[in-house]
Amino acid sequence: MKTRITELLGIEHPIFQAAMSWASSNSALVIAVSNAGGMGVLAAGPLRIEDFRKVVGEIQAGTQKPWGLNIPLNSSKAKEMLDVAYEARVPVMVASQGGPREHLERFRGIGTKWLHVVASVEHAKKAEAAGVDALVVDGVEAGGHPPPSEVTTLVLVRRVLQEVKLPVVASGGVADGAGIAALLALGADAVQLGTRFIATPEAGVHENYKRAVLQAEVDQTAFVGRGLAPIRQLRNRFAMDYAAAERRGASSAELEALFKTSSLKLAAHDGDVSRGKVEAGQSAGLVHDIVPAGELLLRLVKELEEARERLARL
Ligand SMILES: Cc1cc2nc3c(=O)[nH]c(=O)nc-3n(C[C@H](O)[C@H](O)[C@H](O)COP(=O)(O)O)c2cc1C
Which residue from 47, 87, 92, 182 has the highest number of Cβ atoms inside 10 Å of its Cβ? Predict the structure, then answer.
């Protein structure tokens, strides 16, 4: 299947494994997905610089195919990480949280394709004006950092496509080939899956985390931190304590302090899925098995073909 994104990035299938701190902060997941013809994306956020350098080297040794790198541009480590990425001539950048403009010329010089993660029409237009090559558009179903506006993927992707000309990777709420087909039908040029890839042996999170994703139903996530930088995570002790504080009218300072008592690391690294931020999307309810990432990618492609055939028969 050829789309503007497969052509731009030189990948076989219009399917991205989303950048996920901890879950995709290792080389194994990225290599498996890219080698299977998708776009594997390394989440650099939680890595120390020396570990980041090592993981980038492992990916370069493990695949000849295009792969992507996510750096949160507002991180204190961003400058150093960008230098490492530049030296490594990273094929694809999937940048988030911060302005891309000042970096584009330098990376364009080494042939890097620059995608920018946005969660609103306003940010999509700004990124287009800055000169990025394509967008990743996150809707409210997404695990991790959904749009504060709480607009769904179905609506936000469509609206962004009305306003910008760039290729769009739709993200949030998809866990199988039928979902991928739906968003391609909507006009997206590729589709990104995060939560689905947590349920793989390669994902770098604690077994308790993977088990929690498998057990979750579609209505068992929580949108935590309205008014801050909100996250979507599985409903657990921490999320319920936070919701109770909101209900009793806690001040924004109290809520912010409470928000900071928990972390993704507590869940992903330590396996505390009760008190940690078990970031995952509504699509957790669609995930029922742990599958090696390369095999999963091929299954998604097969399901996508089946969905297309089904539509063609209607
Ligand atoms: C555990 C987890 C960690 C995430 N970490 C990041 C991150 O470091 N950078 C980023 O841009 N997005 C991050 N995200 C968001 C994903 O890139 C993606 O947008 C989201 O997973 C898509 O929704 P889905 O989970 O419904 O597939 C994270 C998501 C999850 C579930």
Answer: 92
